[in-house]
Amino acid sequence: MSLYEALTTESAVSLVKKLGLFAESETLSCQEIGDGNLNYVFHIKGTEKSVIVKQALPYAKVVGESWPLTLERADIENRALRLQGQFAPDYTPKIYYSDKNLAITMMEDLSYLEIARTGLINGEDYPLIAQHTGEFIARTLYGTSDFALGPQEKKKLQNTFCNPELCDITEGLVFTDPFFDADTNDFEEGLRPDVEKLWQDSNLKLHAAQLKRLFLTSGDALLHGDLHTGSIFASGTETKVIDPEFAFYGPFGFDIAHFTANLFMNAFSREESRRAPLYAHVVTVWDVFTAEFTRLWNENNTEAFAQTDGYLEWLLADIFEQATGFMGLEMIRRTIGLAHVKDLDSIEDEATRLEAKRQSLSMGAHFVKERARYTSADQLVAAFKEGL
Ligand SMILES: Nc1ncnc2c1ncn2[C@@H]1O[C@H](COP(=O)(O)OP(=O)(O)O)[C@@H](O)[C@H]1O
Ligand SMILES: CSC[C@H]1O[C@H](OP(=O)(O)O)[C@H](O)[C@@H]1O
Question: Which principal EC class is assigned to this enzyme (predicted)?
């Protein structure tokens, strides 16, 4: 018999009371606030405190019951959050309770902060977001890598984060479908000539295939797996990373690539005069990631070759090159694939919107194909400013 049942606002309230998080007598309000593609999120509020209950559905919410999806993802998310909380406690929500059968995680209510994508669209700049996100990425990746854990411990941990169904979504929606006339694609008719040109670009397809192979086969570290600006809560002083249900052992460059791709897509939606803070974030996140990864490398490293001249520098350059390619893929898929970004979709004027999307597509393709040319974030920003 399945122990799973989908929560309602009423049963979510009963559950938090049964668990002793609130007194039986307390009057609570409960609202389902999930705006993501996959899950339910209940916001439960009492007089003095509040809590978030996130529940996975046995299917992808954005499509419906015709797209069944494992409930295991809630357990992956819960365990990833707890691990990320060990490496980067300042940047991770507190977890109060989880139940694998019900596919729920109860966590700290972060609604005193704002989802960064929403804030960036409304003109916020979040001066510390890149510093914090760079530290989060470096600490969580380095801490779960061979270098920190040693190969045996790392493999044991890696075995517990096999996430085939969610990886399959990324392999399809990010790495494959946008390059073919797939049913999942979703784009405006005005973009069709650009999209058809992209489908015929065999050099682009070759590079997409190479990056896909990297995603399929690399097991560098436990990734967040979906680190876009909608997975980050922020304010002027705080940053918290949520929603790691796509977590799995993958290539070092993936998370930072998704963060920078989403910064660049927000830049496309702004006037040039308001883009400077986003460019600065792209440079800062790389500077901070590099410095923090290097600090951790020198402080705690189980690898015999760690101090071999040139090894760390080679690794960081390799991460940069792969990340430049992954960044380009994220820009392409968010423009013509199944899951769009509001930054581009909410541009009201049709001609401006189509032009921003064209640029996102062509810059994305450029970063995929020419990734080996780039060795610094300043160069990425310069290329972005120059346009194609
Ligand atoms: N800890 C939290 N505190 C406050 N709101 C949250 C929290 N977690 C999620 N939310 C809200 O729910 C929305 C969807 O959450 P998310 O984890 O991204 O779900 P999904 O997995 O469906 O993408 C977020 O955009 C945010 O508005
Ligand atoms: C059918 S899932 C599509 C898309 O949604 C996920 O994002 P989120 O859960 O943050 O809404 C992920 O990016 C998937 O690729």
Answer: transferase
